[in-house]
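Entry 14. Two folds queued back to back today. First construct below, sequence then C-alpha cells.
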Amino acid sequence: MSSFSSAVSPNATIVRPPFFFLSGFSEIPHVKYYYIFMCFVYAVTVLGNSFIMLIIYMDRSLHTPKYVIVFHLALVDMFGSTALIPKFIDTFLFDNQFIAFEACLVNMLFVQCFTFMQSLTLVVLAYDRFIAICFLLKYHIIITNVAMVVILAVLWTLTAGLGIVAVAFLSRLSFCKSVVINSYYCDYGPMYRLACNNNSANYIISMIAITMLLVVPLVLIVATYGCIIFALLKIASAEEQLRAIKTCTSHFIVVALFYLPICAIYIAGNVTIVHPNVRIISTSLSCTIAPMLNPIIYTLKTEEIIKEIKKLFKRVKVQIWTLTLLRHTSGLSHVQNFATMS
C-alpha cells in the first residue's frame, strides 16, 4: 500500500494517492451474514420508500405541504441508502476494498449530503407540526407547497455547499502516512486524520458541519416539541389533545430512530473505549435502519396514507374482477358463436 508514493512527483507539495483502502468490515467474524442482512435492508428501503412516494404522487389529496416533506424524506432515505449500501456490499463482499482517490471523495460527498439532508428534513417536518398545532388558524397562510419547496431548496444549497467546501479542503491535504481508511465508506473524519500536513481547517469544517447539520437540528426539534407540549396543555379537551398528539407520533418515532443511535454512539465514544468493530457495525446500522423503517412507520401511523392504500387495493381488486369478468364473458360468447355455427 505504500507504493502510492511512487506515483507522486518528488517536487509535488501535495501527496495524492491513486487509491485508498477501506478496512471497515475486514476483521469482523461471520460478517457475510451481515452483508446478507444489509441486502435485505436495502431491498426493503427501496421498495418501502418507492411505495410511499407512489402513494403520495397518485393521491391528489396528499399533495399538501406535509406530504411534500414526507415525499422528500422518502426520496432522501432511498438515495442515501443507495449511495451507501450497494457500494459497501461490493467493497467487502467481493473484496473490492481499493477505491480511487476521486471516487472516494465523490462517495463521501453523496453519503454525507444525504445523511445531513435526512436530519434537516426532520426539522422541516417538526416546523410543519409546530405551525399546525400552535398556529392552526394561520397554517394554510404560512405553510404552502411553494414555501416547502423553497425551504428544501435552501437546505439542499446549504448542505451541498458545505459538502463541496469540505471536499475541496480535503483535496488539498497530503496523504503520506497511510491509505487505510478505518471505516466502511470514505468517511470524512478518518480520511482527514490520515493527512501528514496541517489538517486544522478540516477539523473546523467537520465541527461546523456536525453542529449546523446534526446538533442544531436536534436542538430545534426538541425546542419545537417543547412548544407543542406547552400549546397542548392549554387545550381543555382531552380528545383534541389526543388528536393533535396522533399527528406528531410518526414524526416523533422517526426522529428517535435517526438521532438516538447517533447520540448513543457519540456518548459511548467519549465516555468509554469502543472497539472499532462495534463502532463500525453500530454506525452502519444507525445510517441504514432508519431509512428502512421510516416508510413502514408512516404507513402504519398515518391515517391519510392508510386510507389511500385501502383505496388503491380496492381499485386493484375492481380492475382484477373486471378483467376476469371480461375474459369470462368473452369466453362465453366464443362458445355461443361456435354452438351457432355447428
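Second construct, same run, same settings:
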Amino acid sequence: MDNISVRIFTLSGINETINYRLTIFSLTFLYYCLILFLNIALIMVIIFDENLHQPMYILLCSFCINGLYGTTGFYPKFLLDLLSSSHEISYEGCLLQAFIMYSFACCDLSILAVMAYDRYLAICRPLHYHSLMNKKRLSLLVCFSWLTPFCIFSVSIILTSTLKLCHSKIPKLFCVNWIIVKLACPDTDTIANEIISQLTIFIYVSHGFFIFWTYMHLIRMCVKSKDDRVKFMQTCVPHLVSLITFLVVIVFDLMYMRFSPTNISQSLQNFIALEFLIIPPAMNPLIYGFKLTKIRNRILSLVYVDRK
C-alpha cells in the first residue's frame, strides 16, 4: 500500500444523469426495494418451509443471497451519489466495490454451474441422487461457489492495491478492477494482474463448458422419457432462463468493455454497464417463484391465508 498516489476516485459516469437525478433516484430506490423484497421473500419462504430444505431450493436460496450481496454493493452508493454534488469514492471503498462487483458476477456463474450439476444428477442419475447430493456434498458445493470467486478476486484486488496510480477518473457509475489497473502509471508493472485476469477467464469459461456439457446430457436423456421431459420443463427451464439472461448480459458488457465504442451516449454506456445489476437480481426470484411448483404453491398458500 506504500505505492498509493491516489486517495480519491471520481465516478464521472454519473455526470450524464445530473439533470434527471431526482427522477432517477426515485425509480432506482423503488427498484432496489423491489429487488430486496423479491429476494428476501424467496429466501424466507425457503428457510421457513422444511419441505423446501432440498438441494435445488438451498442452491436457489444461495442464488438470491448473492443477488442481495451484489446489489447492496452498488445501489446504496449510487443513490447517495444521486443526492450529492460530489461523485467521489475513497481508494479503499473503490477496491471494496470492485471486489464485490466481480465476486458477485462470478459467484452467480459458480452457483449456476452447481445448479446444473444438481439437475444432471436428479434427471440422469435419479436412483443415486440422494446419496450423491447429500448434505456434506451440498455444503462443499455451496462453499465452492462462494469461496472460489472470493479467493480469486481477493488476490486480484491485493495485486491492484500494490499499483502506483497516476489518474483518478473512473468513467463509470461504479468501480471496476480493470479500470483501476488502467489508471496505473506507465512505468508500473501489471503483468501479475494480467496473469490473474487470464486465469479467471479460464476458470469461468470452464464453468460455462461444464454447464453446456450437463445440459447436453440432460436434453439427450429427456428425449427418451416423457417423465424426464416434464421434470426438465418444471425444474430446468427456470435455470436455463437465468443462465441465458446472465450470459447475454455479461457477454454484452464484456464486448462493450473490450471494444469501448466512443460513438454511443453516456446514458447508454451506463445502462450496458448496469445490466447485470438490473435484470438478473429482480428476474431470477420472479422466474423461480412462478415456475417452480413447490415455491409457487407455498407463496399462494401464504397469500390465501393472509386474505382470510
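Quick look at the second one. The first strand starts at residue 8 and ends at 11. The chain has a mean pLDDT of 84.
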